[in-house]
Amino acid sequence: MSTEVILQLRDVTKRFGGLLAVDRLSLAVQRGQIKAIIGPNGAGKTTAFNLITGVYRMDEGEIEVAGKRASGLPSHRVAALGVARTFQNVELFGNMTVLENVMVGAHTRARAGLLSAALRLPAMQSEEASLAEKARTCLHLVGLDRVPAATEAGSLAFGQQRLLEMARALAADPAVLLLDEPAAGLSTAETAQLGELVQTIRGLGVTVLLVDHDMDLVMEISDEVAVLDHGVKIAEGSPREVQRDPQVIAAYLGEES
Amino acid sequence: MRKPYHAALFAAASSLIERARARLKPRHSFAMAAVIAAALPAVLPGQYAVYLAVVIGINTIVALGLNLLMGYAGQVSLGQAAFVGIGAYASAVLTTKAGLSPWLGLGAGAALGGLTAAAVGIPLLKLRGHYLAMGTLGFGMIMHIVMVQWEGLTEGTIGIMSIPPLSLGGFAFNTELRMYYLVAASVILCMALASNIINSRVGRAMRAVHGSEVAAQTSGVDTARYKLQVFILSGAMAGFAGSLYAHHATYVHPDCFGFHYSIQLVVMVVLGGMASIWGAIFGAGAVMLIGEQLRRSLEFSPIIFGLVLIVIMIFMPAGLWRGTMDFLRRLAGFGGGDKTRTA
User: Fold this and answer.
1) Of the candidates A155, A247, B207, B241, which lies 20 to 30 Å from B298 by C-alpha distance?
2) B197 touches chain A (CB under 8 A)
3) What architecture (CATH level 2) is domain B8-332?
4) Which chain B residues are closer than 8 Å to A119 by Cβ?
5) Best of A49, A65, A104, A147 to disrupt the B interface by mutation (most B CBs within 10 Å)?
6) CA-based nearest residue to B122, from A116, B194, B114, A75
7) Domain boundaries in chain A?
8) Does the structure's ipTM exceed the value 0.85?
9) Which among B195, B200, B231 is the top mutation candidate for probing chain A, defined by the most A β-carbons within 10 Å of its own β-carbon?
10) A122: exposed, middle or buried (C-beta count within 10 Å: 0-12, 13-18, 19+)?
């Protein structure tokens, strides 16, 4: 693990009307890390993801990806910087096939435009072939290679849909992969497989930032954990340190009461 | 179609064609379409039927572009007739007033259609939903007014007459049959272009926006840019079709390209099935043929037309093409057909 910071948030703030959803959040993710953001419901974790990926506009603060400014950029430009994500509620392209879904993930890694597509120029055709090849590689990586590539994405089982989303995100050759509650709705066995997959992905050089409620998964695979509560970072450190932090315990207990 | 067995023949033939097509690669199914198109005049009953085929063909080209815009890029255009009119008048003016070749007219029609779409699309596509619809409606009305008022160029409500036909050397496309072959070739070319786009990076990007706009954007798809590009393409195709219209009808008049025609075009796309290339032919055919049948009972035609539309949309919400194919498949017990095939 190097000390290069691949994703940097500085004093990021987001308000929804009177509600302060994210309050001066600063976070650094090192290249090659698996970092987790945890916190009670409503802590601002998914909002943070939406701010990083340009889905929400931040009110204050800065975000940098590998040193390049990402704050204020629209989502597709943030993606081009090397940020890929999955969604809490799986956001697949249900109207398209498994293979096509993953190929869209690689959109920023290809160039063919409307004209070369309409005329099926040779450059476009070879690009299509390598996109399909890349998609198959990603499907193999997540363990979906047995599924026929022409299957409609909407007809997959839930666990498979989650994996498909990850394959799509990986097709972009991202520098950072944001996983939003990847274990939600998965069985214990599937969650264990997910943990292994995330570590495999890290082994390929992708930095992972994940949000999840499954403490076993988070503590098992994360190098570092940050804890949010009501939009504020209240703790940050190794999984052991964070688990013992009295403020963290109070925040979670507070949620139960 | 006056005789019921014509409809049954048509349905049976369509079913066979669709079964064959589902197994073919796109380029083979276009080759099949070319063969059918070449053979069609032999089975058409008379000159007037060939004329109708030409008109359906020209409308199919417009419907294809509009289909890409509405079915894939998810935009609406209630003013598409304006682009057809731009192409038609470009051809008419350049050939009758500047004495240029009709082929240049075709090129100018497509180019002007595309350029106008670019100029109008950049501000209009910033609007959403109903506001975008209103914007395209307004644009259509403005173009109609321009056609009427700019008499120096368009001759206003007199229209432009004696538009020369297209010709190659001494061979003039001045009969229905000759125009039929030219238009049929253009339709197949446009279908191939549309199919190529749909099964490409750009096509996938647009279909992805339909599936989940946020996931498409975070996957790197610049939705605004593609919407504009498709808008421009649909304008160019409409302009091209407009030029063909001018050299076929040899007369253009502002009322040919008004609101009524814009609505007919939208109906063709919705009826034929949005996001369906072959559906564009069906939709254009259905609207034109129903219109022909209803010409006999002028007072009732809007009512009957509306009723037919309602019935079709209730029983075949995916459009006439998909609906008929599904119905025939179920009827005959033929299974299969890849639901995800987009064409």
Assistant:
1) B241
2) yes
3) Orthogonal Bundle (1.10)
4) 193, 196
5) A104
6) B114
7) 1-82+174-257, 95-172
8) yes
9) B200
10) exposed
CB contact under 8 A, B201 and A78: no
Please state, as a whole number, how many other Cβ atoms lie within 10 Å of the Cβ of residue B170: 5
Task: State the pTM of this model.
Answer: 0.84
> Looking at the DSSP assignment, which residues form a beta bridge with residue A209?
A35, A178
Q: Are strands A19-30 and A5-16 parallel, antiparallel or unpaired?
A: antiparallel
Alpha-carbon gap: B218 to the closest alpha carbon of chain A (Å): 5
In tens digits, what is the pLDDT along chain B, a chain of 343 residues? Answer: 444 455 556 556 656 666 666 666 667 778 888 888 888 888 888 888 899 999 999 999 999 999 999 888 878 899 999 999 999 999 999 999 998 888 999 999 999 999 999 999 999 888 877 788 889 999 999 999 999 999 888 888 888 988 888 888 788 888 888 999 999 999 999 999 999 999 999 999 988 988 888 999 999 999 888 889 999 999 999 999 999 999 999 999 999 999 889 988 988 888 887 767 888 888 898 888 877 777 666 666 667 767 777 777 777 766 666 677 777 777 765 544 444 444 4
Dump the DSSP string for B169-206: TTEE--SHHHHHHHHHHHHHHHHHHHHHHHTSHHHHHH
- Smallest Cβ–Cβ distance between A114 and the set B208, B223, B229 belongs to B229
Which chain B residue has its CA at the smallest distance from A106's CA? B219
- Compute the nearest-CA separation of A96 from chain B (Å): 6
Q: How far apart are CA B203 and CA B199, in angstroms?
A: 6
Residue range B40-57, pLDDT digits in tens: 888 888 888 899 999 999
Interface of B with A in 227-246 (CB under 8 A): 229-230, 233
Sequence ranges of the domains in chain B: 8-332
Min distance B211 CA to chain A CA atoms (Å): 4
The CB-side HSE value for A42 (13 A sphere, CA atoms) comes to: 8
When CB atoms are compared, the residue of B193, B216, B226 closest to A118 is B193
- Name every chain A residue with its beta carbon within 8 A of the beta carbon of B226: 114
* Yes or no, beta carbons of B217 and A79 under 8 Å apart: yes
Class of domain A1-82+174-257: alpha beta
Assess A17–B contact: CB distance below 8 Å, yes or no: no
- B343, two tokens: 């064409």
